[in-house]
Amino acid sequence: MASEATAKQRRTTGELVATVEALIFVADEPLTVRMMINVLGEDKETIESALDALQAEYEERESGLQVREIGGGWQISTRTQYHEEIREFLKTRPSAKLSLASLETLSVIAYKQPVTVPEILEIRGVQSASSIKTLLDKRLIVSKGRKETVGRPMQYGTSKDFLIQFGLKDLSELPSIEDFEDLVQ
After folding, report:
1. Pairing with 139, which of 106, 108, 114, 125 sits 20 to 30 Å away (CA)?
2. What class has domain 94-184?
3. What are the residue ranges in the chain where pLDDT is below 50?
4. How do residues 45-82 score in pLDDT, each as one tens digit?
5. From its phi and psi, is residue 98 left (phi > 0), alpha (psi between -120 and 50) or beta?
6. pTM to 2 decimals?
7. Fold of the domain built from segment(s) 2-85
């Protein structure tokens, strides 16, 4: 414990911000404040202050990267305004990863969760069993238990991986249905 206190005393604000940045960079998934507290031996306010400073630093220098809270943790990601250039560089298209049927099914689940396969069928008008399997295999959806109704069908909802893949802090960041209606008018 004494070495932890000594290390804490020797760490300047700049060093703490740099250390937080390095931890977020090497993490395989969004890094939680709790994990940073455990690793660095700092309190929550100190970690949050370092995160604020790191975000401000990226903003001030108009970086192509940003530090964002995504899926319950913190991650370094590219800025959305550079999405097209990055996509061109990587030569990938989002539609290549999921079929239209899977994207439609995922949309229904994201907006109506928890939802059952019969409820998805009612909304989409077509069977979704293979799309459900694909989405489960890609860990974009998870089982949310069984519905208390006749037959007790399985209910599905989006996963933490869904939030990470789509760069969302939580489900409240999903575009509203009205935004989509405006696009088709």
Report:
1. 125
2. mainly alpha
3. 1-3, 5-7, 94-96
4. 999 999 999 999 999 999 999 999 998 999 999 998 99
5. beta
6. 0.59
7. Arc Repressor Mutant, subunit A (1.10.10)
